[in-house]
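Dear V.,

Thank you for sending over the compound details. I've combined the ligand you provided, calcium ion, with the protein sequence from our construct and run the structure prediction for the complex. I'm sharing the raw inputs here so there's no ambiguity about protonation or stereochemistry in the SMILES, which I know was a concern on your side last time.
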Amino acid sequence: MESSNDAKTFGFFNLPSASAPLPYSEGFEMQSFPPNGCTLLNPDNDETWKKVLYSPIGGFGNSSSCLYYPGVNNPIILEKDYFMLPPLDFSTVAQPALSFDLAYNTGGWGSSQTLEVLVSSDCGNSWTTVYNKSDSALITSSQAINVFEDFVPEAYEWRKEVVDVSAFTGQNEVLVQFKITNGYSSYLFIDNIHISQNTFSVSDAFTNNSIKVFPNPANELVQLSVESDQSQSTTITIYNSTGSMVNKNAYTLQTGKQTIQLNTEALAAGIYLIELKKENRQSSTAKLSVAH
Ligand SMILES: [Ca+2]
Ligand SMILES: [Ca+2]
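Below is the predicted structure of the protein with calcium ion bound, written out as C-alpha cells.
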C-alpha cells in the first residue's frame, strides 16, 4: 500500500479515460518519452526514470533503447520515482501475467536500488505490491565494476522477470507502476514490459498446487494428474493463446492424487492454458500443447 500522500499526487495527472486492451507491450523504441499513455511521477522534480538514448542498450541485446533509472546520478537516498503504464483492461484475459527484462549491477557502490511493481484496480486509491526486489535478488550482473564506470549491460546480463497479476483478472481499469526507491547505486535498466495471458511457466506461481499434463503435446486425449486436499467441486477451463475460453467443464475432485482425462481431439493445434478452479480457492494452471 502506498501512503495517502502518494495517492493524492495522482490527482494531478489526467489519465487516459479509456483503458487499453491486453496484450500490452512497451519496448521503448519510439522517440517520445514517456511512451504514449505512460506517466512519470517524480515528486521532487529531480532525477527520475529516463529512456536510454546515448547507447544501444535493450533487453538481452535485442533492441537499442530501454527505460533506466540513473541511481548513480541521484544522491538523494530513499527518493521514490514512479513509471506508470496506461490504464489497462484486464477483463478479457483469464490469467494475466506481467513480464519485463531487467538488468542491474550495483556498480561497486555497496548499496542497492529497490524495485517494486505496484498494481491498483481502484484508480490509484490503494496499491498492491506484486514485485519487490533489492540487493542480491535484484542483481542480474556479476561483472566487477568500480564506481568510476557506468554499468552497461551485456546481452547475457539481462533477466526476464515474470509476475503473476492474475488477482486482477476481470478488472477493466488496472494501473501498473514501476517504483524505484533510490539507494544511490548504479543504473537499473528495464525493457520489454509485456502484459498478456500467461504463457510462461505458470506453475511457478502455484508450485504447491500444480497440475501435471501428459502427454504434452497431446493429440486426442490428455491426462491431468492432480492432487487435492479435499473432495471438492472444480471447474476445468481451457483457454487458447489469446485468452479466449474454448472449453469449460465441471468436475468433482476426490481427496488425494487422481488423473483426469480430457478430450483434445476437437482442439486446433496450438498452445492452451488449462485452469482448475476450486470453489472459493485460488486456481491452478498448466500449459498444454496440442499437435495433431
Ligand atoms: Ca527496447
Ligand atoms: Ca525524482
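A first observation: Confidence is low (pLDDT under 50) at residues 1-12, 201-208.

Warm regards,
I. M.
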